[in-house]
Amino acid sequence: MNSIEFPLLDRTTQNSVISTTLNDLSNWSRLSSLWPLLYGTSCCFIEFASLIGSRFDFDRYGLVPRSSPRQADLILTAGTVTMKMAPSLVRLYEQMPEPKYVIAMGACTITGGMFSTDSYSTVRGVDKLIPVDVYLPGCPPKPEAIIDAITKLRKKISREIDEDHIRSQQENRCFTTNHKFHVERSTHTGNYNQGF
Amino acid sequence: MAQEHAHSSAVERLLNCEVPLRAQYIRVLFREITRISNHSLALTTHAMDVGASTPFLWAFEEREKLLEFYERVSGARMHASFIRPGGVAQDLPLGLCRDIDSFTQQFASRIDELEEMSTGNRIWKQRLVDIGTVTAQQAKDWGFSGVMLRGRATLKVKWWAYPSQPGVCWDSRRAAPYDVHDQSDPDVPVGTRGDRYDRYCIRIEEMRQSLRIIVQCPNQMPSGMIKADDRKLCPPSRCRMKLSMESCIHHFELYTEGFSVPAPSTYTAVEAPKGEFGVFLVSNGSNRPYRRKIRAPGSAHSQGLDSMSKHHMPADVVTIIGTQDIVSGEVDR
C-alpha cells in the first residue's frame, strides 16, 4: 500500500499527452507535407509522373504536386536545365516561399550528366543556380530511388533547428523590385484583333 | 525505342547490313509497345490538362507493366539502348512472351475503360470537337506527320492512299515499309474533321492496332540470331569473348574505336509514336559521323501552334499543345 500511483503508466487509461518541443513539432509538420512543384523539363519528369501514378504513389508521403511555385515548398529539378531555361528556374526558385527545399534529380541536374562533355547549351549541374539539399543520381532514377531521396530529405528536415532558419532568412534576401502601379486607360474596345 | 530504331536503321542503310528476321520481329514488337506506352502517356496527360484526372492514374498503371517489359529485356525502364545497329542487344528472356500475352489479354478492356471515361463524355466533346482544326493542306505545309496528319481523311481506310488527295492517309509503316511491317496487317486509322477529338480517337484506335501487332508478333517470330553475323559490326557475346582470341579483339575494337561507315549520307525516318522521326546521317568514311541531324516531329508540330489556336480561348491553347504531343526536349535541343 505504499506504492506510488502513476496514472499515466496505467494501461487502461489512454495516453492523451504527447510531449515534444516546438522545433520538433514544426519540423514534423513540414516534413510530413512537402508539396513539390510540378516541374519537369526532360525525361526525368516521366519518372516523376510515374511517381504521381498509382503504383508508386507519393501522396502517401504527403506530397501533393502543386502547379504554382507560391504554393510549393519542394522543387524536384526533373530534367536537363539548359542555359535558356536557367533564368526561369531561378525565378521559380525565388518565387517559392521559405522554407524551401531542392532535390536535384537525375544526372543532368547534378553534374550535367551525359551533356557534361560536349554540350554547348546545358548548365552543368543545377547547383550552379540554386542551392541543393539532396542529390539523386540516376538516368532517370527509378521511382523507388526518388522515394529514397524524399525519405533522406525528410530525415534532413527533422534535424533542422529553427534558430538557424530565422538567421538565414534574414541574411539571404532575394532581389525584388518596387512595383509602382499606375492606373491607365482601359484597353478594352470590344474588338477581337486589335493592335496597340 | 523508336528513336533508337531510326538511328540504327540509318546506320544499317549506310552499311548495307542485313538484320536477321528474329531481330526485326523483336524490333517491331518493342516499337509497338513503345507506341502504346507513348499514347497512354500523351492521351492521359492531355486529359489531365483538359481536366479529367482519372485516366492518368489508370493508364500509368498499364505503363508500369510495359516499362517492366522494357526493364526485363534491356535493364532500364526508359532509356533502353536495346535496338542497336545490326539487330538488338540481347535475346528476349524466358517467360517474357508469356507475360506479354497476359498483358495483351487484359489491355483491350483497359482501353475500353479509358474510352468509357472520355469518348462519349459531353464535357470532353465540348472541349475537343472543332478545336485546333487543321486542314490537310495546312498539315502538309507545316510539315505535320503521324497522328496530326492522319487527323484529316476518310474514316478508317485499310489501304493507304498516296497523299495527293485531300485526305491524308500517310503512315510511314505503310508507305515505306521497313522491318516486317508488311507482314503484320494493321489498319491505319484516319479522321474526318482534323480537330482534337479526331486525333484523340485516332490515338485510341492506334493503341488497339498496336495491340493487334503485339499479339501477332510473338506468334510469328522465328528462332534464330538476334544480331547480324558480322563481328565487325556487332559485338560477340561475353562468354565467347572470354574464350576466343578473335572475339576478344573484335570486342575491344568495337568498344574502343567502333566501326567505320562508308561515305554517302542517308535520311531514314520511322513512324515514331509522336510522328515521323528522322535521322539524317552524313558519314565521311570514319568511325564518327560527320553530321547527324535529328528531325523531330515535335519541332514541326509546335510551329503550327499559332495557326491552330487562332480564334480559340486561352484554355484551348494548353490542350492544343497536349494534342500535338510535343516534347519540349525535342523541339529545342
Automatic annotation (TrEMBL), chain A:
Per UniProt, residues of the NADH:ubiquinone oxidoreductase-like 20kDa subunit domain are 43-153
Q: Which GO terms describe its biological process?
A: aerobic respiration; electron transport coupled proton transport
User: Where does it primarily localize?
Assistant: plastid
Kindly give the InterPro entries that the UniProt entry links to this protein: NADH_UbQ_OxRdtase-like_20kDa, NADH_UQ_OxRdtase_20Kd_su
Any Pfam family: Oxidored_q6
* GO cellular component terms, A-Z: chloroplast thylakoid membrane; respiratory chain complex I
Keywords (alphabetical) are: 4Fe-4S, Chloroplast, Iron, Iron-sulfur, Membrane, Metal-binding, NAD, NADP, Plastid, Plastoquinone, Quinone, Thylakoid, Translocase, Transport
Q: Where does this polypeptide localize?
A: Plastid, Chloroplast thylakoid membrane
Please give, as recorded in its UniProt entry, the membrane topology of this protein.
Answer: Peripheral membrane protein
| Molecular functions (GO terms) | 4 iron, 4 sulfur cluster binding; metal ion binding; NADH dehydrogenase (ubiquinone) activity; quinone binding
User: Catalysed reaction per UniProt?
Assistant: a plastoquinone + NADPH + (n+1) H(+)(in) = a plastoquinol + NADP(+) + n H(+)(out); a plastoquinone + NADH + (n+1) H(+)(in) = a plastoquinol + NAD(+) + n H(+)(out)
Quaternary state and partners of this protein?
NDH is composed of at least 16 different subunits, 5 of which are encoded in the nucleus.
The family line of this record is: Belongs to the complex I 20 kDa subunit family.
Question: What name does this protein carry?
Answer: NAD(P)H-quinone oxidoreductase subunit K, chloroplastic
Q: Which organism is it from?
A: Arachis duranensis (Wild peanut)
Automatic annotation (TrEMBL), chain B:
Signal peptide residues on this chain, from the entry's feature table: none
The NADH-quinone oxidoreductase subunit D domain is annotated at 49-333
Q: Which UniProt keywords apply?
A: NAD, Translocase
Q: Which GO terms describe its biological process?
A: mitochondrial electron transport, NADH to ubiquinone
MF terms per GO, please? NAD binding; oxidoreductase activity, acting on NAD(P)H; quinone binding
Q: Which GO terms describe its cellular component?
A: mitochondrion
- Spell out the InterPro entries in the cross-references: NADH_Q_OxRdtase_suD, NDH1_su_D/H, NiFe-Hase_large
* Domain of life according to the entry: Eukaryota
Q: Which family does it belong to?
A: Belongs to the complex I 49 kDa subunit family.
PANTHER family registered for this protein in UniProt: NADH DEHYDROGENASE [UBIQUINONE] IRON-SULFUR PROTEIN 2, MITOCHONDRIAL (PTHR11993:SF10), NADH-UBIQUINONE OXIDOREDUCTASE 49 KDA SUBUNIT (PTHR11993)
**In its UniProt entry, what is this protein called?**
NADH dehydrogenase [ubiquinone] iron-sulfur protein 2-like
